[in-house]
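Schema walk-through. Below, the input block comes first and the output block second. Nothing else is stored per chain. Lengths vary across the set, and this one has 291 residues.
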Amino acid sequence: MKAALTYAAVGLLWLLHWLPLPFLRGLGWVLAKLIYPLARERRNVLRTNLTLCFPDMPPGEREQLARRHVLAFSRSVIDRMLFWWASQERVQRLARVHGIEHITEAGGRPVIMLCPHFVGLDAAGVRLSIDIHASSMYSRQKNPVIDRLLYKGRTRFKPTILFSRKEGIRKIVKSLKEGFPFYYLPDMDFGRKESIFVPFFGVPAATIPALSRIVRLTGALVVPVIVRQVPDGYEIEVQPPWQDFPGESVEADTEYMNRFIESQVLRMPEQYFWLHKRFKTRPRGEQRLYK
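--- output ---
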């Protein structure tokens, strides 16, 4: 029964990809109006994150930022129907890539595409898979129907290698050495194990130091991929590779990465994924930050 209901819901979602983008963005606006008052726990997470990261911002401005974020997030959720099912030509029109030569012309060196958690990261991942064979991490979903949907949506163009987070970095290193760029999402709280605490907007944040370790093992270039949601789709900015990285230590590299992400968040703060409990794991002895 549960599977049948899930298939029915997926069928309804599939119908959405035939609709024009302005109509879908309107649906995203409706979804945002529902989410903000009803999703109490996530609303509290959002407000807590913004208070921690922007303590000097007037409360009224933070509230407006919170609402703009929910709108951008809701629109990105609806837009996923396009990136899962629309034609390749439509996907290319909706998501424009700038600077892809920084990935394709890397002089034979492995490439790590560093993609912070902005609302358009799924759009960027699917769009880039039209142009390049890549690899990334994948978290399995409890619902098998949804799990297959997400997997197929992310591998529908050029073959994409998806690793489980439980597999560690060994297979990532192997695929990088075989020439597959790695699409890396660096800024989630995965708990105390293997994390180190480095500042994020001045707040100690449990951060996986995998970027530094993988670069030290492979000599890979770090190429930032920043995606911006715009009225007619998404702009994907592939930036030049970092210079003088890695640095003096894994800890210094991880702090450098977080400072870079901060700089990109300040360009479009409403589009960063503030609904995640980024500061859930605390240094020993510190109290919890989320209710």
